[in-house]
Structure formats: C-alpha cells, structure tokens
Structure to design on (659 residues):
C-alpha cells in the first residue's frame, strides 16, 4: 500500500455514486424469506424502508467531512456503506485507503477476554500485523491509560475504559482515512480533549476524516466540509460553516414553528398598527443576510387612529424565538416622525451588529403612545454569515489579559 | 492483513470453545473417548456388530479411525452454522472479511480434533492395534480435503442461517442422519444392495473409507473417486465462498 503522500490528488479516496439503501422488512419469517428470495434473484426488496436516497459523494485525501442530520436521517447507514459493512441497494460505493472505522469503539471486544487480548483482536481487525501491535503496545497502553486493568477481562471495565482502549488502538493503527460515528461523546471531558487533539494532529498530517456528530462545535472544529442528510437525502453539501448554520437554523425554525402553533391564541389586536416593517437595505422577498459586524437597519411605518404618535418597539430574537435584545422608542424618549395625520415613520440602526453567525428574526411592534400596550407585531428574518468559532449568539466586547 | 484477523479469530475460538477452563483440553479428548466407549459397548456387546473383513476385536479401532474425523467435520459445521448470527454486533460495526468467522471456527475445531485424533491413534497403537504410520501422509491429505469440505458447508450454512433461522433447528438432526448414512459404525459391505449404491454417493463414505485404508490397511487401490471427490470439494469450496461473499453485504439487513 502506498502512503498518502504518493497518492495523486485527483484520485478520491472514497466515491459514492447514486447510493440508495432499502432495508427490507424482515420482522416475520415470511417477510424474511421473501426478502431473501428477492436478494437471491438480484431484485430490490419490494417493500422496505428507504433509508438513503440517491447520495453521491467524493472524499479526497486530506479532506475532513462532517455528516450531520437528525436522528434517523440515515447518517449511520451512510457510514456503514462507506466502510463496506453493508452493500447499497442501488448505486456504487468504492474506497481505496487504509481505513479505520469506528462505528462503535467497543466493537470487536469480547467481554470474557483481557484488555490485552482484545487489543490484539481489535488491532488485527484494523489491519495491524501482530508485530505492529507489539511494537505499538506501549503507546496504546499509554493513550488508554488504564494501567493494570489491561490484564483484567473487559467485562470489568467501565464504559469509559472500553472507549479509551478502543480509541487507543485506532491511534496506533495509523489509518489514512478515519471514519467515526459519534464515538467521542462517550468518554469523559479530558479524554475527549485528548481525542480531539489527536484528531487535529491526524488531519494536520494530511489524513482524511469522515465523522458523524451531533455536536456542531466538534464538526466545525474538525471538519472543513459538511454534508447534511435529511430523511435519507443529501440536503446540503459545502463549507462546514454554511451547512451547519443552515442545519441549526432549520432546527431553530422548526422549534419556533412548534411554539407558534401553541401561541396562536395570544394574537394581538389594537388601535395602533404597524403599516409596514422592512429592512432599509436589501431586496424585498429575498433572504436578508449580512456579515458579522455589518450594520442592520429596519424601518417601521406606524398607523395611529387618533393622531397621537405611537411608540415603536424593536426586538431581536434567535430563529427559535429566544429573545436577545429589545428596546422601545418611548423608553429612550424618541418620537416617531409624523408623515401625515395618521401615519408615522421610524427607523432603527444597529451600527455594527455583534451577533454571531446564525439565523435570527427582528420583531417590530406598534405600541400605544404611553408605551404600555403592545398593539401590533411583525417579524422579519435575517441571517448573519461568518466563520466565527465563538460560542453563544452575541460577541461581547472583550480583551485578553496575559501580563501579571 | 486479514491473516492477522484470522489468527486472532482462531485463537479466540480455541480459547473460548475449548480452553476456557483448565480441563478443557482434557475433555476434548475424554469426551469423544467416552462416546467411543459407549458406541463400542452398544455395538459390540448388545448388537454384536461385526466387521466381516476383520476379527471381532478390530471393531473399536475400525470405529475410532473414522469417528474422530467425523466428529471434527460435524462439530465444525454445526458450530460454524450460527457464527454469523452470533457475531451480529461485530458484523454491523466492523468492516472485515466476514468469511473469516466461519472459517476460523472450522479451523479451530479441526486443529483441536486433529490433536485428539493423534492421541487416539497412539492409544490404539499402545493397546495392540497396528497403526500404519506411513499412512499418516495420505491421511493428512484426506483430512485437509475433509477440512475444506467442512469449510465449504460452514460458509453456506452460516450465510443461510442469517436469512433462514430455522436452519439452526434443522441441521443437528440432519447431521445425525448423515452420521448413520455414512459407513462409520459399520462397513459398507454390510449394506443391502440398494442402500450400498446410495451410500456410494455420500462423500463421507469416501473420506472414512480412505482413512481406514491409509491407517489400518495397506492396500490403496486407486479409484475414480480419488479424483472426483477432491475436485468436487474444491469446486464446492469456491462456489461457497462466492455465495458467502455475495450475501455478506446484506447480513446486516437481516440480523
């Protein structure tokens, strides 16, 4: 086998071409037999669960790809096809790499045998020769740091110890392509960090990573590209920040939708109305997007039935409805500009919006002149783009201090 | 690369199936010896079985020479038949050549029983039976083909068992039937004409007959079956491997 450096860049390590997977229904013996006959005849199972639908993918040496999606979206099935554990029902899957797949860290461990015996087995399953295993044994034991327990049967191990030992063998097996399925979530904090450090080194050495994770933090930290699988289909593929942001936005808006359903009853009605509410820049009907730190300006047109100037309230919420910031014109002593007898106008400008990348909504409200009652509400959605690795949703002014 | 996995799987099978307690190896020899004693008692004292060509005292060695290879054969096929289903967790999680699972079980079983077979041959020699030790070489070749035959059946049955679970219940009685349909407890010359021609189609008859020829008798008159059976075993082995590999990508759907 040639090393990763010798491989021409054009040749992908992993190729999926129009891969679909149908799990046949095999709950009753009759169904099993029918599915088996279909298999023998080379036919697709007549009825079954379509878990993956026409996925194509190429992964080149040195790439890092995160696969994200809801539970049951088909991520694990995709990894199983990539590793060759299962065959696709349609399409083709090819790979040519010294591959280590970690679909489950403890897989291949026999509880009755000692840790050492299991290390030998696991190493062999990962393609290591007995000599390689012996040469790397010290390194493995050090990485796993389970001490004398290595001579105990694995059934006496804690789940964390099993995970540590499993990952330790992988680090020693020197793979070109590592495929992991949400395995780092099992270990404790310090072991997770150790693994992430190892993975970063692994990637820096020009190796390739394919990982499934529900932790957008990990995906953004380790992967440069991401694939969002939704109900068996590839919904979005591209740069990791774009894909994870739309995935999170989708989650947030779905949560918000559910909440809205509940809040239908609390609709507001009143005398003072919001005639229009729009962004001062940007094209009507198109998703409004700004880059992190850019200004945001919205315009409110208010209607007043009695000629008195209503108050305006503007609030920014996350796409799931979590409030971030809100302010009323009346509180700051601002009076809207009179357009005619019953119409007033007001704009608010955030000079450099400190929101972190993600999807948000800005709410505009018309209030009575006393700022006591909320009379009308409108919502505009917008998106903040960027590659920030900060956490939360707002950048707070700060500086680091390193001197005494 | 996969040879490492194979070695580990064989070692694991030997340790968990035979050597997980100290007396494991002793039982490996004792158990068939006791079974042999039971058969010897039943067939020499109750049924007064005779081998027409031999003296009455030769019945036990006649049985023993064929009984051990049969035990290795049937035990390995039966053990291997559910090895894929038993390792469902491994198969769904680790990518490796799955055919190594049944093959390792067959290999471990044959290794263990070959050791027992040698021990029994020595016991027979010590108790006054003349064993033709020069026959060990042809016997070894015959055993290799018996091993390949078992491996082929193990591949087929272990793959089938994933899809047809009833196989687990069907195989043991079928194996017992096969045992009695093979000239292990009796000489083929005792069979009525109709059955004798039927038993000639049983490959096990060729295996036990040739083993007896090699180890107990001097004569080894070549026959067409000496070519046909090994060739058929090789062909079956290739077909079985192809079948297993074609099915193995779908195991996970059914496990």
């Amino acid at each position: 086998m040639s090393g990763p450096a010798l491989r021409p860049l054009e040749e992908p390590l992993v190729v999926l071409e129009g891969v679909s997977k149908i799990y046949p229904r095999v709950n009753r013996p009759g169904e099993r037999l029918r599915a088996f006959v279909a298999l023998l005849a080379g036919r697709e199972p007549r009825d079954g669960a379509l878990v993956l639908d026409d996925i194509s993918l190429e992964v080149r040496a040195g790439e890092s790809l995160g696969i994200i999606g809801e539970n049951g979206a088909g991520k694990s099935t995709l990894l199983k096809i990539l590793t060759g554990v299962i065959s696709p029902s349609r399409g083709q899957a090819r790979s040519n790499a010294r591959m280590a797949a970690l679909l489950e860290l403890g897989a291949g461990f026999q509880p009755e045998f000692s840790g050492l015996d299991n290390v030998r087995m696991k190493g062999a399953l990962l393609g290591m020769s007995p000599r390689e295993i012996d040469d790397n044994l010290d390194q493995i034991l050090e990485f796993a740091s389970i001490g004398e327990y290595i001579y105990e049967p694995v059934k006496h191990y804690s789940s964390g110890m099993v995970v540590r030992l499993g990952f330790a063998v992988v680090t020693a097996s020197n793979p070109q392509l590592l495929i992991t399925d949400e395995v780092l979530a099992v270990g404790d904090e310090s072991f997770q960090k150790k693994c992430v450090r190892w993975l970063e080194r692994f990637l820096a050495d020009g190796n390739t990573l394919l990982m499934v994770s529900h932790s957008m933090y990990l995906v953004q930290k380790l992967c440069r590209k991401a694939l969002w699988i939704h109900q068996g289909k590839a919904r979005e593929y591209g740069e990791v920040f774009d894909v994870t942001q739309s995935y999170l936005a989708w989650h947030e808006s779905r949560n918000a939708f559910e909440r809205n359903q509940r809040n239908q009853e609390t609709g507001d009605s009143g005398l003072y109305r919001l005639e229009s509410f729009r962004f001062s820049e940007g094209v009507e009907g198109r998703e409004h997007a700004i880059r992190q730190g850019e200004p945001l300006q919205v315009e409110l047109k208010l209607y007043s039935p009695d000629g008195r100037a209503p108050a305006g309230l503007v609030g920014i919420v996350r796409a799931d409805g979590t409030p971030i910031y809100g302010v009323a014109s009346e509180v700051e002593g601002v009076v809207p500009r009179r357009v005619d007898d019953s119409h007033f106008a007001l704009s608010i400008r955030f000079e450099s919006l400190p929101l972190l990348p993600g999807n948000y909504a800005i709410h505009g409200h018309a209030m009575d002149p006393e700022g006591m009652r909320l009379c009308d509400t409108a919502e505009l959605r917008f998106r903040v783009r960027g590659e920030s690795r900060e956490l939360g949703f707002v950048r707070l002014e700060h500086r680091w201090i390193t001197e005494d | 690369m996969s040879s490492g996995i194979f070695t580990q799987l064989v070692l694991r099978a030997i340790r968990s199936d035979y050597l997980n307690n100290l007396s494991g190896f002793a039982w490996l020899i004792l158990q068939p010896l006791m079974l042999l004693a039971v058969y010897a008692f039943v067939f020499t004292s109750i049924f007064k079985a005779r081998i027409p060509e031999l003296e009455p005292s030769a019945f036990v060695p006649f049985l023993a020479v064929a009984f051990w290879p049969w035990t290795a054969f049937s035990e390995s096929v039966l053990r291997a038949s559910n090895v894929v289903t038993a390792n469902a967790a491994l198969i769904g999680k680790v990518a490796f050549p799955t055919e190594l699972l049944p093959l390792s079980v067959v290999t471990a079983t044959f290794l263990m029983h070959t050791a027992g077979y040698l021990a029994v041959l020595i016991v027979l020699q010590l108790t006054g039976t003349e064993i033709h030790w020069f026959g060990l070489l042809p016997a070894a070749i015959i055993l290799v083909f018996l091993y390949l035959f078992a491996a082929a059946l193990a591949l087929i049955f272990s793959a089938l068992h994933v899809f047809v679970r009833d196989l687990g219940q069907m195989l043991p009685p079928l194996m017992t039937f096969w045992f009695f349909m093979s000239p292990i407890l009796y000489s083929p010359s005792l069979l009525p004409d109709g059955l004798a021609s039927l038993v000639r189609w049983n490959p096990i008859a060729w295996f036990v007959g040739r083993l007896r020829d090699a180890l107990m008798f001097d004569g080894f008159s070549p026959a067409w079956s000496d070519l046909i059976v090994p060739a058929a075993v090789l062909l079956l082995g290739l077909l079985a491997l192809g079948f297993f590999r074609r099915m193995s990508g779908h195991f996970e759907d059914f496990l």
Q: What stands out?
A: The longest strand of chain A covers residues 48-59. The domain at 4-98+175-250 of chain A is CATH 3.40.50.300 (Rossmann fold). Chain A has two domains: 4-98+175-250, 267-385.
